Amino acid sequence: MAFWKQLLLAAVLLVVALVGWLWFVPGSGQTLARLGLPQALVSALGPSPDAATQTGAVNGGQAGANGGRRQGGNAPAVVAVAVETGTVNDRLSAIGSGEAIQSVVVMPQVAGTIEEILVTSGQRVTKGQVLAKLDRDEQVIALDRARVALRSAVERSSSYKNLQSVARLEVLDAQIAEETAKLAVSTAELDLRRRDIVAPIDGVAGIVAVNVGDNVTTQTTVVTIDDRSEILVDFWAPERFAVTIEPGQAVEATSIARPGQVFSGVVDAIDNRVDLESRTIRIRARIDNPQDVLRAGMAFNVSMRFPGETYPSVNPLAVQWDVDGSFVWKVTDEKAQKARVRIVQRNPESVLVEGDVEAGDLVVTEGIQRVREGQAVRLLGGPAEPEVARQ
Predict the structure, then answer these.
(1) 19 and 36 part of one domain
(2) Total count of domains within the chain
(3) For the segment 146-194, what is each residue's pLDDT rounded down to a tens digit?
(4) Going by fewer Cβ within 10 Å, which terminus of the chain is more open, N or C?
(5) Distance between CA atoms of 149 and 155, rounded to whole angstroms?
(6) With contact defined as beta carbons under 8 Å apart, do 277 and 268 qualify?
(7) Digit-coded pLDDT (tens) for 224-246
(8) How large is the average pLDDT for residues 210-235?
(9) What CATH number has the domain bearing residue 252?
(10) What is the DSSP string of 23-44?
(11) 292 and 325, same structural domain?
């Protein structure tokens, strides 16, 4: 395109822009007149002064009306709730495994063949009750032989005592032989008793692991007996509870197998060290089981309560963050105020904080994005009355 055509096009565009500015921007004619543009040219290109004045007045009136409406509704609407109070570290919840207060794996004291089984799975047994018997023919014969030898030794010792011609040394030998025979009888009786497999404790028998005719040794498991009058529950507590938990403190436990039923107990023992990897400490609780509804190996949800320090409790939605840390918007006299807080403990439904808030203060939970420091706000709904929050 020729240079003169470019200049002509630029001049046309400039005139169009100037005319648009004069027609649509109030007061633009006066501005051009002050810049030295002839008034006749300004009047030819733009609207008359009266029309411009009227247009400006109308636009100004509308702007004033709109401005008045904006000024009246400038305060953002927010939802605020009252700060409550909560207790930090007042509850411990942990998962633990149960075991019987006494549990014994019954094994034979001697090797042999199972001749008779006198217990069934789930049977309640008492200490000393015979659970099974081994073959005993050899032991019966040995006992009879020992008793015969004892009678012979007793008769010989008695006869020597009544004879004056027998040397004192022979009498002493006869007495020693009698004592030896008595010991042999006791040994034979012990060997015979050991052919009976007996219960070492009171409890409930598990599944019998042998059958009649099985050859067993001293390493063979016959049956397991559990004394489940009380259940021991081992669980792991965070390190911060290491100096808080003491033996005898109350414990509550629930089991998946007994939903809705709470079992009471106490802390029975505390380990002497904190685990280095998990930073937890092992706790053992003792749970009463008078109705025999709990079993060893069950999983338990254990809970404990402690007296803890009280802190303001706010809704998690109220906590905000900036470059300086966490804060909440506190409403005072219908104006927003940024209150710095430090998070003490997070809970599922609340956050315990420490800072420039206290119970009863109103903090914004909804509409936070429109709130500014010192800005007036409109509260939607009535705030709930503060109460003590149970964490």
Answers:
(1) yes
(2) 4
(3) 999 998 888 887 776 666 566 677 777 888 888 999 999 999 999 999 9
(4) N
(5) 10
(6) no
(7) 999 999 999 999 998 888 888 99
(8) 94
(9) 2.40.30.170
(10) HHSTTHHHHHHHTT--HHHHHH
(11) no
Residues 6+ apart with CB under 8 A from 82: 359, 360, 361, 362, 383, 384, 385, 386
Query: Where do we find the tokens 């609207």?
Result: 47
CA dihedral 341, 342, 347, 351 (to 10 degrees): -10
Single out the residue of 101, 89, 88 nearest to residue 265, CA to CA: 101
334, 374: one domain? yes
**Strand 250-255 versus strand 124-125 pairing type:** unpaired
CATH of the domain at 167: 1.10.287
**Could you tell me the residue range of the domain that residue 361 belongs to?**
77-88+309-379
In this predicted structure, the answer to whether residue 50 has a pLDDT above a threshold of 70 is no
Counting DSSP H helices and E strands in the chain, the numbers are: 6, 21
Distance from C-alpha of 229 to C-alpha of 105, rounded to nearest angstrom: 17
Q: For the domain that residue 363 is a member of, what is the CATH number?
A: 2.40.420.20
